[in-house]
Amino acid sequence: MRFAQPEVLWLLLALPVIALAGWYSASRKRRALARFAGGVEALGRFTGDISKHRRAAKGLLLQVALLALLLAAARPQWGTLVDEVQYSGVDVVILLDTSLSMAAEDLAPSRLELARDEIGTLLDSVAGNRVALITFAGVPTLACPLTVDHGAVKLFLDAVEPEVVQVPGTALAEAILLGIDVFGEPDELGVDRSRALVLFTDGEDHEGGIDDVLPKLADAGVVVHAIGVGTTRGAPIPVDPSATGLGAYKKDAEGRLVTTRLDETVLQQLALETGGHYHGATLGAREVDELIRTIGEMNESEFGASLRTRYRERYQIPLTIALIALVAETLLGDRRRKRKAA
After folding, report:
1. Burial class, 224, CB count within 10 angstroms (exposed 0-12 / middle 13-18 / buried 19+)
2. Domains of the chain (ranges plus CATH)?
3. pTM surpassing 0.90?
4. pLDDT at 228 over 70
């Protein structure tokens, strides 16, 4: 046997205190009545019809009722049940651009930091849905496969830095193809899936190939929601301070400052062609609220089941005992039974 809320059992320590308080209160009443009657010898005139045994029984019944109520509140459990739990929701694959241009600071504190914050807000609001994380720059990488454990996704998200990218540039089309593979086949479990690919990027695509992936997105039934991170006015790209000094920015071969600007064209095309939405990132993160609402309106589909073992609740037993004790205490009078004269 176990208790689901064992902390309630500490209240059992109060039962002796309550019993002692009841006895002390009864003693005070008896002494007060004796003074009123003119002495202990005359007390019988007022208490002769009262049965001490019945009063003791009534007090004991109240103690039993209180004990049983506390045991019921602690939720005793024994025996087990095995339930099949069906999981349903929307599959969401998040694509996060980690190219060096995402280190630009035209959106404070930086494009990447803002995107990370918005993804964190998204993860907190889509509980129950499976989420995967893909980071991409020159090469896309599956950081975390589809999972309902959003805490695990956040661990990988916190480790993302633009400096770790070994291949420069942005390969958006390859990242989308990897996202489609992560979703799996549309009829893998015999059901049509609700699939959303959420893209966080500044839109700078150095590899091209978007037109080729659009038919594959349609075949896979994937809706693309794009968040453009950055501004159209642009900003310089910070580089590794340890390599070129504090406050250094990327320059071209001729020594001119390289500026990165938000390119919305490809992102708007992806959203339009797949039935999704495009939003520009803002410091107030209004676009994330809209994204959460949109995902919440998608039709959920079952994506698996598991067996869950749980204990049987037995609080009904002490609760029934408490009820019986209270009813018995109410029905039991405290007067002596009068014997019938022969």
Report:
1. buried
2. 2-75+315-331 (no CATH), 86-305 (3.40.50.410)
3. no
4. yes
